Amino acid sequence: MGTGKRGLIATALAVVCAVTVLAAPGTAFANPTPSPTSSAGPALAAGKDLEAVRQKLDKLYRAAGRATDEYNAAEEKADKQSAEVVELAKKIVKGQEKLRKLKDRAGAAAAAQYRGGGLPPEAHLVLSDDPQDFLDGAGRVREGHHATKGLLGELTRTQEDLEQYAKDASAQWKKLEAGRKAKAAAQKKIEKQIAQAEKLESALQKEEQERLAELEKEAANKAQTAWLDSGVLDEIGGKASEQGKKAVQYATAQIGKPYQWGAEGPETYDCSGLTSQAWISAGRGIPRTSQEQWKQLRHIAVQDMRPGDLIIYFGDASHVAMYIGDGAMVHAPRPGRTVTIAGAGSMPILGVVRPDPDTGAN
Fold first, then answer.
1. Alpha-carbon Rg of the chain, whole angstroms?
2. What percent of the chain has pLDDT over 70?
């Protein structure tokens, strides 16, 4: 990444720190020196209590994040199962039409035999006086036997296929219903956690909310500083691939748009909705949820990451962001926040994954 780009990122980070109140620990850079609280009233004196509130909010929003992953996974499965049910329904319709035609053919063959006086083809053959007719008839009898046998076999196979399609459709429908229930349960979890967090925040006085915001930024800054002090940034020098550049351009273009659980844009996003759509825009489809991104995409050492790679956070892989270079990342933090740039080390990093191959980096 060039010097100009580095300057832009540094400027963006400075602006974010100055004007944005970000999410729980790890959602932004912050001023290393806490702002003084000269007008400390009774509410502000209880710093430990506010720190407990901050930690409680962090837990609630993280729980909402995990439930959001559950919701997104259930939605993805439901979409897939719904499509499979539709395909099976199409196969059943085609199979029924095929079975009808085969039955018509079988009926026509039975009618032809009836018109022949009920005698089988072999009897007509024996009664023939013309030797040539006899030989021709013998060939037709063999063909007729083969055709009848083939027709009956096809009828049987078609009926068996229809029965299997019906069983498969029934099984997929049950899975679809189970998926819908899982999705509804996850939605309840999300709404419950967010409601509790909003209630907790709304109970604070204005001064307490301001101090809480400072505590959040201080916690984020502390984690980011520790990460940078480890010297890891000195080892990170990977350059973005062409697809990676496109993914970064998409993600950073969404800065300022609100977080919304379950959203994939274009107006609102959740964390994995942002990263998955960014990579789709770059021409590469990736799993929808942060947990599946962690499971399915190629793992990369932190010191080897490059812009466009995805950073997975927390032990349960419940949050994801996109690395954009110079120790920064872009992400959709949590409810009540917007897509923003933050320090890549400002939350506990589980690992890094790469959606695209190593070729083409420049």
1. 33
2. 72
